[in-house]
Design goal:
The chain contains 10 helices and no strands. It is mainly α and about 190 residues long. Helix 1 packs across helix 3, helix 2 runs antiparallel to helix 3 and helix 8 runs antiparallel to helix 9.
Length: about 190
């Protein structure tokens, strides 16, 4: 618990989670314990912390290289280990369900894109997820363009019903409607 309090203090003094991890890992020489303390200080539920750290333990935390704490902290952050999960409302869950349908209609997705989307779903950044999906086109041979664009239209309509929607959502929604029209005519 003391290590988590130290992590919390580091956050209070302006450190990012990656920087807090690096500081603690340098101090303790215990990477797993340091990563767990950062997650605890961020109030990430223990079961989720265990799952995330199990996923990356062998590659990043089991046998750390000397003086690699900063790099490891950056990697842990990039992998989403320090992402604070947001409890999604039923409205937001409906949007995520539409995103998943659209992803299925893509006909394939790059691993990095899928990872980014999963992080945005976890943190509740649905605007970023939507903008990312609307900038992606379905694969010509395996995708279903009509289903992809119409599903993104539905998701965009739900997202724009929130108070003060980001103006980029409306612009992306307009582009989705144009793509859907073209896909239906093809």
């Amino acid at each position: 618990m003391r290590l988590a309090l130290a992590a919390r203090h580091l956050f209070d003094t302006g450190h990012t989670p990656a920087q807090a991890y690096a500081t603690l890992a340098r101090r303790t020489r215990e990477p797993l314990r340091s990563a767990r303390a950062v997650c605890t200080a961020l109030a990430i539920p223990a079961a989720e912390v265990n799952r995330r750290l199990d996923d990356c333990y062998d590659a990043l935390l089991a046998n750390p290289r000397p003086n690699s704490e900063a790099d490891t902290g950056e990697l842990l952050e990039a992998l989403g280990v320090f992402d604070i999960p947001k409890t999604l409302t039923p409205h937001e869950l409906a949007v995520v369900d539409l995103f998943l349908t659209a992803i299925d209609a893509l006909g394939g997705i790059r691993a990095g894109h899928q990872h980014g989307l999963a992080r945005w779903f976890t943190t509740g950044n649905l605007t970023a997820a939507y903008l990312s999906l609307t900038a992606t086109k379905p694969l010509p041979t395996t995708g279903d363009p009509t289903r992809y664009w119409t599903t993104l239209i539905q998701a965009g309509e739900l997202l724009t019903t929130t108070p003060n929607p980001d103006i980029r959502l409306r612009n992306a929604l307009t582009r989705c409607r144009t793509h859907a029209t073209r896909a239906a005519q093809a």
